TrEMBL record:
PLAT domain boundaries: 1-105
Xref: CDD domains: PLAT_repeat
Designated name of the protein: LOXH1 protein
PANTHER family in UniProt: OXYGEN-REGULATED PROTEIN 1 (PTHR45901:SF7), PROTEIN CBG12474 (PTHR45901)
Length: 178
C-alpha cells in the first residue's frame, strides 16, 4: 500500500525561476506510482539553471491515496547534471505527519548521497520500531545458548537468567523458530 492512484503534482525551483505546479501525467510505465517502481516523466520548461528544491505532492483523491516516496531524480538535458531530492517519507493524511505534499531540497553534491540515504533509512526504521521502547514495555529476547529469555524491563533492570516459563516469550520463540 505504498503506491497511489491520486494525481501527483511537482514544482521545480532553480536559480532562474520555477516551473509552477505540473501534474505528472504520462509515465513510461503503464501504471504510475506503484510500490517499488521507478516512474519516468518528461517535464517541459525553460532552463531553470541550477536546481535547489522541489515541492511534490498529490491531491489526496482516490482509494488508497497515501504514497511512500523514496526519492526524485531530475536530469537536466542541457547540462547533463542529475539532481537528487531524497524523501523516504509518506505523503498520506493517515501516516507520518499527515502531509500530502513535501518540500525537498537537493542533495548536497559534496555529501556522499548513499550516506544521506542510509541516514534516512535509519530514521525510517527507528520511526517504525520505537514503539517497542515506550514506557512500560518489557523487551524479551530468546537466548539460543541458555534456551531462556533475556528480559529488559521498564525500570532498566535486566533478567539475563531468563524465565523459561514466560508465556509471552514462548509464543515469540515458537513464532520465530517453528
Amino acid at each position: 500500500n505504498a503506491g497511489t492512484e491520486a494525481d501527483v503534482y511537482i514544482s521545480v525551483y532553480g536559480e532562474r525561476g520555477d516551473t509552477g505546479s505540473r501534474q505528472l501525467l504520462r509515465s513510461q510505465k503503464p501504471n504510475k506510482f506503484l510500490k517499488g517502481q521507478t516512474d519516468i516523466f518528461a517535464v517541459e520548461a525553460v532552463h531553470l539553471g541550477h536546481l535547489y528544491k522541489i515541492i511534490i505532492g498529490h491531491n489526496g483523491l482516490g482509494s488508497g491515496n497515501g504514497w511512500f516516496l523514496g526519492k526524485v531524480v531530475i536530469k537536466d538535458p542541457i547540462t547533463d547534471l542529475d539532481y537528487t531530492f531524497l524523501c523516504h517519507r509518506w505523503l498520506d493524511q493517515g501516516q507520518d505527519d499527515a502531509n500530502i505534499a513535501r518540500e525537498l531540497t537537493v542533495t548536497d553534491a559534496s555529501t556522499f548521497p548513499g550516506r544521506q540515504e542510509l541516514e534516512l533509512k535509519r530514521e525510517e526504521t527507528w520511526a517504525a520500531e520505537k514503539w517497542k521502547f515506550q514506557k512500560g514495555n518489557t523487551l524479551q529476547f530468546y537466548n539460543r545458548l541458555t534456551h531462556g529469555f533475556i528480559c529488559l524491563s521498564p525500570d532498566s533492570s535486566v533478567d539475563a537468567l531468563g524465565d523459561k516459563k514466560n508465556k509471552y516469550g514462548k509464543v515469540f520463540f515458537m513464532g520465530i523458530y517453528a
